[in-house]
Here is the input.
Amino acid sequence: MENSSSSATSFNASYNQLDVPLCHCRKPTRMAQSWTDDNPGRVFFKCDTHGFSVWADKEKPFGWQKLRLIEAREQIRRQKEEIRALKTSLRETHVSLSSNSPNVDAEMFAEEKKKLEFEAMAAKEREKLLRQFVVISWGGFIVVTTMILTMVKK
Ligand SMILES: [Zn+2]
Here is the structure.
């Protein structure tokens, strides 16, 4: 008997559930999908106690379809690994954040807020200086122009 249940995943296909066969122990089987190298993607019936019962897909996978299914399986496994690694690093980041004292965040925010307020004040100060400078230079320009005009008139 072929043993494909080891790497099988549960499977809900559009098979007629009424056709689900009984295992030799007389218990109803359930559908599962094989992901072995021999039978990638092939659907079968399995007993909870005895494992593989009978194939639902009568034909074995073969040819390029079989190769593509194996490739897809490998890709899914790699992506699952990546997701697991990401989740782990995310959890570690979370742990290292929450392991700090709860005040640290508040202190950081207060510090940041102070910095921002200071920058806003500095910007306002710069704007004021710039306005004064503009007024002074306009004033100076007018004074100089008036002087020149008076000199020319004389
Ligand atoms: Zn059984």
